[in-house]
Write a structure and sequence with these properties.
There is one protein chain. The chain is α+β, with helices and mostly antiparallel strands. Among the domains are: 2-176, Mth169, Chain: A (2-Layer Sandwich), CATH 3.30.1280; 660-1017, Phosphoribosyl-aminoimidazole Synthetase, Chain A, domain 2, CATH 3.90.650. β30, α24 and β31 form a beta-alpha-beta unit. α21 (660-668) crosses α30 (1008-1017) and α23 packs parallel to α24 (773-793). The protein is globular and about 85 Å long.
């Protein structure tokens, strides 16, 4: 029998209001439309009438909700219906116009249903067996003047056909058929599982086709991308010729995962031009090694580039770790699933650091197309496979990170959002996690781990399904019509929270395992084989792997990226204790094999050996592919540290400005500058109680560039987090783009109180068309800047990630072929330790009468700026600039040290780093944050400034805007001696932003109220 429980709200339902507001914004319904929602649970297990009523009573709140139950034969044809209370409007006594039900497709992770199933098992002391299960869905009822044409758009706005099903019925049909159809999304697979030999003794054309589109299955359909080019395929072909046999499909699939760009980062590893050791070893790792040598006894790094995260010293007892990942391609297809999988995945990178770090803070960064502009794009010809709108992608990604972080009990104190039309085809979704781990556990250095021969291979956490197959290889290519739906996963943060607590709070501290890593890209194929490098080999019994449903093919079990799983090396003597602990905590743990010292990665399935690859070939056999770069036309970057900006800055073409007030307000409302409080307030930053500086700061709640947490509550020490990126600079000069990102990330942290000598960096390269020589040239320049400026600032890189093919290839609204490449983007994250959290400084003005100082120099550096972008959007072509911001490291480093000294002496009341939007925006944010006015003049600002708009909106690097109490004026200026700075005004009690120009004439006179409205206007209804 199949049971259906529908739960209705008897009180105000905020979800229904939010859904209606979304339809209003899409102009799909009128304001007189009524909408209500029912939560539906379909239970594929036989229960008595009384048991069903008990289940429904548990799932519904008796005060605020009522329920309806229905029972059907399986397959459902008809049924009886019972109600636990008199019908009301919510239970459909009133007439509605249309009903829409949205549920998941077979095989898609259903977290609500999983929780419901566990609750039923606890309630009735029963177990769901074999294919018995629970499935959730939502039922939307719409009442109003709605056309049938609109209903199609409405249903499309409610669901993603890649992972969800939608059903629509009008009122008459609904009544006639007795409600919605009962749909049980069981996964039904071919019961015959087999291992297929792959013939590689074929032409180069066929090799290329296998590498691009995958192995041909028994049904004649290719399985999906291996992302192996001809060079790789020939190397694999030669290996198996030497072995005198054909590869099995699982072996080829395993090599594809291990050798993918996503896992091996071949573009950063392979030789490029004169760099025989590649970009990573030369510029990123090379910089860190040189900095650590130079620091000597001052080196605070512990574990860098060798583990799932990077780790630095926090104090004598603890280390802190950080990792930032990207999850771009999955988020383009299923924004919610892609984002939630990204955040819980990077949480596992933290759990998998050393013997396991506790996640203590999350980070996010989103690069989207403007959600207010709908750009119609299609993956398929003839306007098929429509991509989701910018608004759907943004909403889904935000909700996914919310779900992953909030439900995992991890605070999210820091993040950013950036908009550009180049992200219409593929968004960038950055997610990061900070971890805390003891430096030693029972005398063992906690960052060291090593699987030993004879250790059990243990998989803990979630089960394996078809979700996430070809995730690593899919992410190594451009998004196109062949991108597989199975590459998308949905994370389950509740399951992972149980896993995390059981491991980090208990198993780790008793040293029950020797090594741990997460099942991320490539699933077991990568996690097991990577850990096997520690011991020297492995043997896996694949049929022992717990599955979500039966009859998965062996290769699918091996490469699936189904979420919430970790792989551990557990000594045989500890297994009984370990397994007992996991069982008590409700975490599934299964022995699936043993680590060996055989030199082989071997896999058996039901007694048959189906894979045996040499460990050396699996990990090191991929061939080097030397790359050559080519300077783009009209590209003039010198790729060298800036020594002086004043001699090389070209004049801009000036423009006449009639209304500075209007321009100022327009700048404040730009998507890249305006408040994104609507995101920040969705993310819990209070949980764990470690917040010092949160995501919204000051009485005016401005979005912060920098946050501080206190991971050890008994300590006064804190961890400081910030970041920066400047995609708009990339097409002009990636060297200075990278330099600006590094300088701003460091400066943001220093402005809040970080010690510039105790800051580390993380790099996240998101590039496009990385097989094109011109794009490689840009990449090489950016990487060189990372080397130059990291060494100059002595800020080592401790972790990083690259995503190389962020391109969309499809069709536009007219059905014409289109390629959209993102702006080459480098996110730099700064990560440091501060000795005293009481010394940190926020950006908001504190007291009327405080003095306003501008630190650093301003130049005519408007190219790539938000101001210039605004003018271009307004089609005001008479203004131009050829000067992208450059970074003067020597001056800046000296200034940052002085700022740190002044903060330690409690001389600075507020401090804000000047970045996107320049001085004008920084002044506004400082005033809004403190809900106080400012009165300043740009007449004597340091540098070379030719016009008032340059003074206000130049994005010159190395500048900080601070306020200082009058009593501290002399002491502050004494510390600043030898640096470029100017006293430009004061904080006022009168809520007005008053700015005088270069000639002393008033150019801006705005009420603070208008500035606040402009700052909050753009996304106020989101």
């Amino acid at each position: 029998m199949v049971h259906r429980i529908e739960v209705y709200s008897k009180v105000f339902d905020a979800r229904a209001v939010a859904a209606k507001n979304r339809l209003l914004k899409l102009d799909l319904v009128g304001s007189d439309c009524d909408l209500w929602i029912s939560d539906v649970y379909t239970i594929d297990k036989d229960f008595s009438h009384d048991s069903l009523k008990n289940i429904a009573s548990m799932l519904a709140n008796p005060v605020t909700q009522s329920f309806v139950t229905k029972t059907h034969p399986s397959p459902p044809l008809s049924g009886r219906e019972t109600r636990n209370s008199p019908t009301n409007k919510g239970e459909l006594e009133g007439v509605f116009t249309y009903a829409i039900e949205i549920g998941f497709l077979p095989g898609v992770t259903d977290n609500i249903a999983t929780t419901a199933r566990e609750s039923i098992e606890d309630l009735l002391k029963t177990k769901f067996i074999k294919e018995e299960n629970v499935y959730s869905s939502k039922l939307f009822f719409l009442k109003g003047n709605i056309t049938e044409k609109d209903t199609i758009k409405i249903i499309q706005s409610f669901y993603n056909p890649l992972i969800e099903r939608g059903q629509l019925k009008d009122f008459k049909t609904f009544v006639k058929e007795g409600g919605m159809d009962i749909f049980v999304p069981r996964v039904i697979l071919n019961k015959i599982t087999q291992v297929t030999e792959v013939d590689l003794d074929v032409s180069d054309e066929e090799l290329m086709l296998i590498g691009k589109s995958g192995i041909t299955g028994p049904d004649g359909i290719r399985r999906g991308p291996l992302a192996l080019d001809l060079t790789f395929m020939r190397t694999i072909q030669a290996y198996f010729k030497k072995m005198k046999r054909k590869p099995n499909d699982i072996e080829l699939e395993s090599l594809a995962q291990s050798w993918s760009e996503h896992c091996k980062h071949t573009i950063f590893a392979d030789p490029i031009d004169e760099l025989k050791d590649g970009l990573y070893k030369t510029y990123i790792k090379g910089a860190t090694e040189e900095i650590r040598r130079k620091k000597g006894n001052r080196d605070f790094c512990v574990s860098v580039f060798t583990d799932n995260s990077g780790g630095i010293i926090f104090d004598d007892e603890f280390m802190v770790t950080h990792k930032v990942e990207t999850h771009n391609s999955p988020s383009a297809l299923d924004p919610f699933g892609g984002a939630v999988t990204g955040i819980v995945g990077v949480n596992r990178d933290t759990i998998g650091f050393g013997l396991g770090a506790k996640p203590v803070a999350n980070f996010y960064g989103f690069c989207f197309a403007d959600p207010r502009i709908d750009i119609a794009l299609y993956k398929g010809k003839n306007k098929t496979q429509k991509m989701l709108s910018g608004r759907r992608i943004m909403d889904g990604v935000i909700a996914g990170v919310n779900s992953g972080g909030n439900q995992s009990g991890i605070p999210t104190p820091q993040g950013f959002v950036y908009f550009d039309k180049s992200f219409a085809g593929k968004p960038l979704v950055f997610v990061g996690t900070v971890g805390l781990i003891p430096r030693k556990i029972k005398g063992h250095k906690a960052h060291l781990k090593k699987a030993q021969p004879g250790d059990y291979i243990v998989m803990v956490g979630g089960r394996v399904g078809k979700d996430g197959i070809h995730g690593a290889t899919f992410s190594s290519e451009a998004l196109d019509t062949g991108s597989p739906a199975t590459a998308v996963q949905l994370g389950d943060p509740i399951t992972q929270k149980k896993l995390s607590d059981a491991l980090i709070k208990e198993a780790r501290n008793t040293l029950l395992y020797n090594s741990i890593t997460d099942n991320g890209a490539g699933g077991l194929s990568c996690s097991v084989s990577e850990m096997a490098r520690e011991s020297g080999g492995c043997i896996v019994e694949l049929e022992k792997v717990p599955l979500k449903y039966p009859h998965l093919e062996p290769w699918e079990i091996w490469v699936s990226e189904s979420q919430e799983r970790m792989t551990l090396a557990v000594p045989e003597k500890n297994w009984t204790k370990f397994s007992g602990l996991m069982k008590r905590r409700g975490v599934e743990a299964t022995v699936i094999g043993k680590f060996t010292d055989s030199g082989k990665c071997a896999v058996r399935f039901k007694g048959q050996k189906i894979m045996e690859l040499d460990m050396d070939f699996l990990h090191n056999g991929l061939p080097k592919r030397p790359m050559k770069t080519k300077m783009p036309v009209s590209y003039s970057s010198s790729g060298a540290l800036a020594q002086s900006r004043s001699s090389s800055r070209l004049p801009s073409v000036a423009r006449t400005i009639r209304n500075f007030n209007q321009l100022f307000l327009q700048m404040l409302s730009r998507p890249n500058i305006t408040s994104f409080e609507f995101i920040s307030r969705q993310y819990d930053h209070i949980v764990q109680g470690n917040a010092v500086l949160g995501p919204l700061q000051g009485r005016g709640r401005v979005n912060a560039d920098t946050s501080v947490i206190r991971p050890v509550l008994s300590s006064q020490k804190g961890v400081i987090l910030s970041q920066a990126l400047y995609p708009a600079y990339s097409e002009i000069d990636t060297y200075n783009m990278a330099a600006s990102s590094i300088d701003t990330a460091i400066r943001n942290a220093v402005a809040a109180g970080a010690n510039p000598d105790y800051i580390s960096l993380l790099d996240n390269f998101c590039w496009c068309s990385a097989n094109e020589p011109e794009r490689l040239y840009q990449l090489k320049l950016a990487a060189k800047a990372c080397f130059d400026f990291a060494i100059a600032y002595e800020t080592p890189f401790i972790s990083g990630k690259d995503s190389m093919f962020n391109d969309f290839k499809g069709f536009d609204k007219d059905g014409l072929p289109i390629k959209i490449s993102i702006l080459p983007t480098l996110l730099i994250s700064s990560f440091g330790v501060i000795d005293d959290i009481t010394k940190v400084v926020s950006p908001d003005a504190k007291m009327a009468g405080d003095l306003v100082y501008l630190l650093g120099e301003t130049f005519n550096e408007m190219c790539g700026s938000e101001y210039l972008a605004m003018l271009k959007e307004k089609d005001e072509k008479e203004y131009s600039s050829q000067n992208i911001p450059a970074v003067s490291v020597g001056k800046n480093r000296k200034l940052y040290s002085a700022v740190y000294t002044a903060i330690q002496k409690d001389l600075i009341a507020s401090s804000i780093s000047i970045r996107h939007g320049g001085l004008g925006v920084a002044l506004a944010r400082k005033a809004i944050g403190g809900m106080l006015g400012v009165s300043v003049s740009s007449k004597n600002i340091p540098g070379m400034v030719e016009s008032n708009d340059v003074a206000l909106y130049s994005e010159s690097q190395g500048r900080i805007l601070v306020t200082v109490a009058p009593a501290n004026k002399v002491s502050f200026e004494k510390i600043m001696k030898g640096n470029s700075y100017a006293l430009i005004g004061k904080v006022t009690k009168e809520p007005v932003i008053l700015i005088k120009g270069l000639k002393g004439k008033e150019i801006i006179n705005l009420s603070l109220k208008k500035a606040v409205e402009a700052y909050r206007e753009t996304f106020k209804d989101y």
